[in-house]
Amino acid sequence: QVQLVESGGGLVQAGGSLRLSCAVSTRVVSVGAMNWYRQAPGKQREFVAGITRELATNYADSVKGRFAISRDNTKNTMYLEMNSLKPEDTAVYYCNADCRRYSGGRSNYWGQGTQVTVSS
Question: Which backbone phi and psi does 87 adopt, to 5 degrees?
Fold first, then answer.
């Protein structure tokens, strides 16, 4: 079973910054597209940002200009630099990755989530 391990969440004041990390902790053949999603209380999970293995990125309109996604293919790790945080960014943040397994085939996997809370 492929595991994604997230870290970096926490409590921050509005206007502050946080950096999230997501590591594929299981040995895999390769990691394709990686994404960040978030889910606020009472709301559906929503896309935040994505990055391909070739480092092409895309963002939700709500975070453009404030968040930056990156990855290190040598470490199978993805990052989300979050700046100018707003209370509405408060949510559980989940990473998602497309992985090719040594046992054969490729599947999409989710991390366990990390809480980000922005106080006003």
Answer: -55, -30
Other CB atoms within 10 A of residue 31 CB: 22
Grouping H, G, I as helix, E, B as strand and the rest as coil, residue 89 is helix
φ, ψ dihedrals at 14, nearest 5° = -55, 135
Q: Is the pLDDT of residue 104 over 90?
A: no
Alpha carbons 105 and 30: distance in angstroms, whole number: 11
Looking at residue 99, its amino acid is: C
User: pLDDT tens-digit profile of 28-46?
Assistant: 999 999 999 999 999 999 9
DSSP state of 87: G
What are residue 117's DSSP bridge partners?
11
CB 115 within 8 A of CB 12: no
